[in-house]
Design a protein that fits this description.
alpha/beta; six-stranded mixed β-sheet; 17 helices; globular
Length: 490
């Protein structure tokens, strides 16, 4: 319906209507951010509205491009760029969408939440192509199919676009059905994830510190009975600063000794930088009552863990709700047990290039530890897990997720959800518990898995789409009447 509307609109109107459509999309799909007002007050609502308005600009830009493409396709009076053809919409429109999704995922630290591809996460044969193109290829196919249907409704010669779209869909499905049985290897590892279900308002209250540690200790004992190779706690599950709080750190060591299983725990920590304390959101690997390795989160959440431009605009911290003051890590840690794995903290799993860097370093398993308790029992947890699903398929490595309140579970290298923490009634969110899964590991080869084209070539498909979109824009601008007259004058 959006594309049918754009056929009738001039670029200015197309931008306005598309921005409105984008605004409604983000207001409806990330509405759960209103729960931040419970912690940040009315300014959190203002921030949510501002975020939705900014993200909608990408929809507005797409609408402008799509309107120009569709109007040129049906125009009989204007010169048609060479790049346009009876199937131009099946090339330019999907490429423009992918280019804008890529920009949204990177500009201003990036927010690649709810990419169009993620809507296909349950359809395993469809999403297997992501190991070639990344999630961008799946977004491309979704837009392509919609463009073909729009042509079928409006255009007189719809046979060619519909045939092309059907052919591409069949190729994608064929590849997925062929690829699915090949995923995984003979070597397996058992991982247990722990979901503590600690209310957000209690996490940093010292009155509940002992209760929180005891809850995680009890869940760890429960998880250890499954004889896992690794137990995983969620992000910031440790209710204090590792190392700085010595009694708390010693209690963690005691839990580790009692479990007799390596543990990966989400634990912020502080370090002294000259005369100033710096805090980092990190994860520590505990084994035999000692810290073996740790990772400090590299990609921090803007306006959550730090304030952008605070050095230039220091007054921002005074007018905004309480915001963390974390510093980013500078190492892409690959943990060794001897199992080699890496961890993505919070929304780091939204960034495929970051996950790819860990797997290039030799990680054969990815862990995602997060705390989505801020957003209540909403779709936020499942939307977040969709991103983890695509990281597993793109890089052909299994993913284990440990979230404070869910979704906590196991995703194999084909994107299949193997199991999750749930109670007796089947509820997965805001319940405590554990789940253990056996993962088939990808074969190690020269420090890399070597099993995914995306692992080797990265975002080549997105950059191809960016190049084709840029070429179309340049060709279109060159053919505008003003530019044609200018060129003749020269």
């Amino acid at each position: 319906p959006w594309l049918l509307l754009l056929r009738r609109l001039k670029p200015g109107a197309a931008f306005g209507w598309s921005w409105l459509i984008g605004l409604l999309f983000f207001l409806g799909s990330i509405w759960w951010m209103v729960h931040l007002s419970d912690f940040g007050g009315p300014m959190a609502i203002v921030g949510w509205l501002a975020l939705c308005g900014c993200l909608a600009l990408y929809f507005g830009a797409f609408g402008t491009i799509a309107s120009a493409v569709l109007r040129q396709e049906t125009s009989h009076t204007r010169p048609v760029p060479r790049l346009l053809s009876p199937v131009s919409g099946l090339v330019v429109l999907p490429c423009a969408w992918v280019a804008l999704e890529y920009a949204r995922s990177h500009l201003l630290t990036g927010f690649g939440w709810n990419l169009l591809a993620y809507s296909q996460a349950p359809w395993l044969p469809v999403i297997q192509v992501a190991d070639l193109t990344g999630a961008w290829g799946v977004s491309f196919v979704v837009v392509l199919v919609n463009a073909a249907i729009a042509d079928g409704v409006q255009a007189k010669r719809a046979g060619v676009p519909l045939a092309v779209a059907l052919g591409i869909v069949l190729v994608v499905l064929g590849y997925g059905l062929w690829r699915l049985p090949q995923v995984g290897g003979p070597e397996t590892v058992r991982v247990a994830v722990v979901q503590g279900n600690i209310p957000q308002e209690r996490k940093w209250d010292e009155a509940y510190r002992a209760d929180i540690v005891e809850r995680y200790a009890g869940l760890t004992r429960q998880a250890a009975r499954a004889a896992p190779d690794l137990i995983v706690w969620p992000e910031t599950s440790v209710p204090g600063f590792r190392g700085l709080d010595e009694p708390l750190t010693q209690s963690l060591f005691a839990v580790s000794l009692a479990a007799e299983v390596p543990m990966l725990v989400g634990a912020p920590h502080a370090r002294l930088d000259g005369a100033r304390w710096q805090t980092a959101n990190g994860a520590a690997l505990l084994q035999a009552g000692a810290i073996r390795q740790w990772y400090d989160k590299v990609h921090l959440v803007p306006f959550g863990e730090f304030i952008p431009f605070e050095g230039t605009l220091p007054w921002l911290r005074e007018v905004l709700p309480p915001i963390g003051d974390f510093v980013p890590g500078d190492r892409h840690t690959v943990f060794t047990l001897p199992l080699r794995f890496s961890v993505l903290i919070c929304f780091e799993d939204l960034f495929p290039d970051l996950a790819r860097r860990f797997v290039q370093g030799g990680a054969r398993l990815l862990l995602v530890i997060t705390n989505d308790a801020w957003f209540g029992p909403t779709a936020a947890a499942y939307q977040h897990a969709q991103a983890s699903t695509f990281r597993a398929v793109e890089l052909r490595v299994p993913v284990a997720r440990a979230a404070n309140t869910g979704w906590s579970g196991c995703i194999d290298a084909s994107g299949r959800w193997l199991g999750s923490v749930r109670d007796a009634d089947g509820a997965e969110l805001f319940v405590p518990g554990t789940v253990a899964c056996d993962f088939a590991l990808p074969p190690a080869a020269g420090g890399q898995t070597g099993r995914s084209a995306y692992l080797q070539w990265g975002d080549w498909f997105a950059w191809l789409c960016i190049g084709l979109t840029a070429a179309w824009l340049l060709d279109t601008l060159r053919r505008l009447p003003y530019n044609q007259g200018l060129m003749r004058g020269v």
